[in-house]
Amino acid sequence: MSKQPPVVDIVIFGGHGDLALRKIMPALYFLFSQKYIGVESRIISTVRHPFSQTEHRNLVHQKLHEYLPPGHCSEAYWQSFSARLTCISMDITDAGSYTELAGLLQKFPERARIYYLSTPSSLFGNICTALEQTGLVTPDSRVVLEKPIGHDMASFRQIDDLVTAVFHESQIFRIDHYLGKDTVQNILALRFSNAIFKPLWNSQNIDHVQITVAETVGVEGRWGYYERYGAMRDMVQNHLMQLLCLIAMEPPGHLDSDSVRNEKVKVLKALRKMDKREIAEKTVRGQYRKGASNGLPVPGYLEDDTEPHVSDTETFVAIRADIDNWTWSGVPFYLRTGKRMSERFSEIIIQFKKIPHSVFPDNGKPVEPNKLVIHLQPEESIKLLLMNKKPGLTNGMSLRPVELELNVAEDDPRSPTAYERLLLDVINNDPTLFMRRDEVEAAWEWADYILNHWEEDSIRVKGYTAGTDGPSAAVALIERDGRSWHEHG
Ligand code: BG6
What is the pTM of this model? Predict the structure, then answer.
């Protein structure tokens, strides 16, 4: 007989925020409809302003239509899903206003509770303390924390101390949704289930690594948030660092959460803390100016809000990072991320070294080095670029690159989103794909170094036109080392 899906109470703090409505609700809708969550489970959204249950359900319905792939919000299923939704208007920072929430939760004291904190991280401490004061933290409660947690190492520690005073580390799920993407998990499968890669995975054979996360969107109505964080804190300190860890970590002894996280922490700790001179040379900050995106004119960052601003916040970052250990010494990791770039794509390029000597004259054309190309989005694929003889009688021994493609797409027309996978892991109490405190600390430590030098040395953003690939300084950064960014496509 198949196992019954768990029945849980999920409380979303910041229930009408962009993330809750755009990502969390659609993910829960799928998990419910596919019976990963028991039908009696409840989703309780806390909101600031008074909202009736009908208004709340109508809003969620409208947003599901907006954010689910077309045709996926079934009216028949909506009826049963909407019956699981409740909304409570409350001041989440004041323990005195938790009475209604407590009343609801205490109807089922044995049920696992998932508190999803989809609010600014500055409120995490208040919420956890209020939950404890109102007796709502049971042994089977879990708390999910959205990134970025804090603004730097000091504020991260302050916030995390308050959370860990209430929840045990095993109950805390620090989310980085990149770890829930299928291809990202495939990196582990590729590296640790295929013996051919292990002997090649080091500085003797790999020339360099590139990690790019390019977005075409701007700040999307989140100017206030973005202004405080910028690309370094919003993307590099978490998503790009996690991708770097998965590429650079040593094989873990087991696939359990601590074994994997121990190896990732070692990588983060081995990241070189650059000095001032290196930071000036090896990092680039950019900010988009007005331009075009998908053929339409778009404003620059400074005008991308309800009123114009003056700001030096970066919307683009390029960095050459180095890992000081035996495996990676001398292998640069080039990281790049930006908003309003020419195309939306995330990819990782592992470029192998050139052959030491070529026996192919080929009109003096050099033999191209092998590359492992991992596309994370929008399409998911893993390709190995190899050199091959051009076919036919007339081409002599001319060579051409060919792609050996691992087809990672399933026949399933819809692959689960990162939030679906990660929420299911929280429901099943599996923390492997979540970040441990020391991981976040190590990532902040490295990021703080760069952020502080940028501030102290007044390293200003360089403008780039929306719809391009960032400032020219990012091209110069890699070309100075005799390399170039991989051409996507
Ligand atoms: C979020 C950032 O964590 O990731 C956003 O806060 C960014 O600024 C988003 O747009 C990108 O996620 P994805 O999955 O669309 O690449």
Answer: 0.95
